[in-house]
Design goal:
About 90% of the residues lie in helices and about 0% in strands. It contains four helices and no strands. It is mainly α.
Length: about 130
């Protein structure tokens, strides 16, 4: 192959490859963008469903716990009153028990909220530096 033929051959090939590559790049970008929008919509639906379920569950559990807890406190207070405890001692014990149970509920709610994170979605959309290597 002569140098002239070689130069003509190399100048024609990149033009065709660049046109095909640009077209492929455009199509792949459109597919990627569509998948990102779909992933975002799916994540939003999951968050809305999970959030609504969590709120409904929390309301139901809190209502049942408050009702049963008040009945239990009333039962124990009546038993303590008949056993001869002072009213101040009964109320102080009920207060401490109520505070301990409320801290337990707060820990349960925090644990549930920590499980609802976006790290998997963010890792799928934006790769970290470690994944690039």
């Amino acid at each position: 192959m002569t140098p002239l033929e070689e130069r003509n051959h190399t100048t024609e090939t990149p033009a065709k490859e660049a046109a095909v590559t640009a077209d492929q790049l455009t199509m792949s970008h459109k597919k990627w963008l569509k998948s990102i929008f779909g992933l975002g919509a799916l994540e939003a639906k999951i968050w809305m469903a999970s959030g609504a379920q969590l709120i409904a569950l929390m309301c139901g559990v809190v209502f049942l716990l408050v009702t049963s807890w008040l009945l239990l406190i009333a039962l124990l207070a009546t038993a303590a009153w008949y056993a001869g405890w002072s009213l101040i001692g009964i109320l102080a014990t009920a207060l401490v028990a109520t505070l301990i149970s409320s801290f337990g509920l707060v820990l349960l709610i925090r644990k549930t909220l920590k499980r609802m994170d976006l790290t998997r979605t963010l890792d799928a959309i934006i790769p970290t530096d470690n994944e690039d290597d």
